[in-house]
């Protein structure tokens, strides 16, 4: 999945971030010369499909705030946090930047973020969905504002289903239904695969929930995913490799392999996020989406992104104004909806209803249906190390180097060390 590639070696993350707190921002204070403030914003979700949409939001903000220039900087997700950590450690942190829910705790607990409430005098900014706003509080303080959310659904190529004489997926499908269809749809001689679901952390915690398991103990002090439910979930993922989806060797580390496979009409089913909608507008075949199949239960991954400000910024008020505009203004909300750039975390349902008017994909209602059974990622202070550990061990199982049971046992031991 595009959003879930391996990031920086986060074993150094806490130390790196803490070090940055004593250093200044590299942002030049331009308020004295010419009266304008230059505000840097660093993002991963805008590139490559939504840079123009972000430009639209920036232009609207600058029109309302003529003394502020927003300079946008982008990086691919698999490079983003490495660059962000490096800039913070080197005292060149951007004034504002995008943070996802999974990494927010690390940055907030390290003291790298500006308390936006202290700048705004606004402990409960209006216009947001309450649960989204709460997700980006740490120790009672609002260190980021929710900017967007997205869900993972099952994409499918309608033409491949029709050609194979297989009934299209429905919301009532289970893993068994998906597996049976994937086997019929796979035609390796023609280079067609029936399914693609990456074998890694982000898919595992979700399928674990679908199998009725829990990732951590109730007190959050111990890994519990090496359970019978965890073995079932990991086996479900690993069993696809080399049968109904490509092997690690076939993928060969190629970036966006799954995206290109689906766009080329060679992939029947694809577990991915709604951020892919805009990039599929012009593919030469019919496709649609449905809520992902479950096992004993339904569970859909929901990702939250936010806008935070560096604690070292010299422009706290401007940073807060930009964060609030980008995350809750009508211009930002409508731009996101019209371009299928994820969804705004606003409380106005009328704004969200406009999302359903876009005819592609036809079953956009699946996006909202998936919110009825949410699987949030487990979050710990040493988040990235945990994600990497689980992904590494699952990859070993997928490659046949170890059994699923051995992989989960090793992963659980590593996570327990991180929790300790």
Automatic annotation (TrEMBL):
InterPro entries under this entry? Bact_solute-bd_prot1, SBP, SBP_1_CS
Q: Which UniProt keywords apply?
A: Cell membrane, Lipoprotein, Membrane, Palmitate, Signal, Transport
Question: Does the entry feature the keyword Cytoplasm, yes or no?
Answer: no
Q: Give the matching PROSITE patterns.
A: PROKAR_LIPOPROTEIN, SBP_BACTERIAL_1
State the Pfam families in the record.
Answer: SBP_bac_1 (PF01547)
Q: Which domain of life is it from?
A: Bacteria
Xref: SUPFAM superfamilies: Periplasmic binding protein-like II
Signal peptide (residue range): 1-20
User: Member of which family?
Assistant: Belongs to the bacterial solute-binding protein 1 family.
Q: Can you say what this protein is called?
A: Sugar ABC transporter substrate-binding protein
> Which source organism?
Nonomuraea recticatena
């Amino acid at each position: 999945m595009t959003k879930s590639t391996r990031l920086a070696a986060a074993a150094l993350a806490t130390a790196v971030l803490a070090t940055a707190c004593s250093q200044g921002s590299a942002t030049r204070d331009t308020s004295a010369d010419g009266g304008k403030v230059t505000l840097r914003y660093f993002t991963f979700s805008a590139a490559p499909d939504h840079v123009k949409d972000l430009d639209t939001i920036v232009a609207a903000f600058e029109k309302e705030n003529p003394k502020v220039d927003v300079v946008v900087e982008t990086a691919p997700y698999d490079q983003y946090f490495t660059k962000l950590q490096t800039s913070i450690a080197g005292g060149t942190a951007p004034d504002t930047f995008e943070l996802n829910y999974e990494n927010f705790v690390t940055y907030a607990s390290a003291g790298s973020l500006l308390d936006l409430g202290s700048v705004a005098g606004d402990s409960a900014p209006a216009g947001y969905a309450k649960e989204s706003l709460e997700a980006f509080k740490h120790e009672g303080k609002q260190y980021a504002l929710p900017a967007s959310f997205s869900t993972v659904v099952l994409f499918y190529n309608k033409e491949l289903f029709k050609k194979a004489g297989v009934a299209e997926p429905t919301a009532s499908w289970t893993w068994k239904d998906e597996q049976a269809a994937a086997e019929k749809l796979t035609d390796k001689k023609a280079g067609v695969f029936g399914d693609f679901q990456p074998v890694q952390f982000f898919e595992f915690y979700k399928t674990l929930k679908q199998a009725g398991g829990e990732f951590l103990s109730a007190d959050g002090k111990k890994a519990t995913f090496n359970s019978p439910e965890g073995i079932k979930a990991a086996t479900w993922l690993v069993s696809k490799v080399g049968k109904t989806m490509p092997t690690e060797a076939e993928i060969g580390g190629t970036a966006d392999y799954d995206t290109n496979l689906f766009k080329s009409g060679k992939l029947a089913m694809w577990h991915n996020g709604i951020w892919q909608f805009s990039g599929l507008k012009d593919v030469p075949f019919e496709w649609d989406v449905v809520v992902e199949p479950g096992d004993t239960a339904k569970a859909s991954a929901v990702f939250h992104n936010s806008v935070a400000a560096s604690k070292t910024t010299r422009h706290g008020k401007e940073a807060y104004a930009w964060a609030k505009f980008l995350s809750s203004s009508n211009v930002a909300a409508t731009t996101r909806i019209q371009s299928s750039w994820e969804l705004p975390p606003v409380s106005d349902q009328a704004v969200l209803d406009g999302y359903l008017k876009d005819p592609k994909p036809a079953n956009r209602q699946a996006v909202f249906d998936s919110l009825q059974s949410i699987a949030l990622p487990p979050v710990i202070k040493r988040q990235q190390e945990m994600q990497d550990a689980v992904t590494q061990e699952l990859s070993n199982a997928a490659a046949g180097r170890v059994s699923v049971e051995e992989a989960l046992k090793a992963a659980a031991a590593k996570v327990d060390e991180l929790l300790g």
